[in-house]
Amino acid sequence: MVTIKEATQNAMEFARESLGAERTRGLQLEEIESGAEDGVDAWRVTLSMQANLDPYAALSGRRDYKTFTVVKSTGEVLSMRIREVSKA
After folding, report:
1. Which of 27, 29, 57, 81 suits 14 as a labelling partner, its CA being 20 to 30 A distant?
2. The dihedral sign for the CA sequence 12, 13, 19, 23
3. Per-residue confidence (pLDDT) for residue 85, from 0 to 100
4. Strand 28-37 and strand 77-82: pairing?
5. Are the CB atoms for 12 and 30 separated by under 8 Å?
């Protein structure tokens, strides 16, 4: 079984490979939860990264959030989804 740490590393590696260095600046772990995806046990790993909407995005502190589904038995990343964060 893949540990939480391994699932996080796999999600980060997948993000960097899929999105590239520019879109994954300031990559950091936000949340991890255990669950099932289509009947498969998986970790849901939420990562955030600096938003690059404009040159001032880093100054504003705005971040983009994505949730990655990682299969517990293999470590394979099944999906990457945009995670909307509510502003309360």
Report:
1. 57
2. positive
3. 74
4. unpaired
5. no
3-class secondary structure, 4: helix
pLDDT on residue 62: 82
Consecutive H or E run containing 10: helix 4-19
**For the chain, domain boundaries:** 4-82
Structure tokens at 59: 């100054």
pLDDT at 26 over 60: yes
CATH class of 4-82: alpha beta
Structure tokens at 53: 């909407």
Angle at 33 between CA 27 and CA 36, to 5 degrees: 120
Question: Per residue, what are the HEC states of 22-74?
Answer: HHHCCCEEEEEEEEEECCEEEEEEEEEEECCCCCCHHHHCCEEEEEEEEECCC
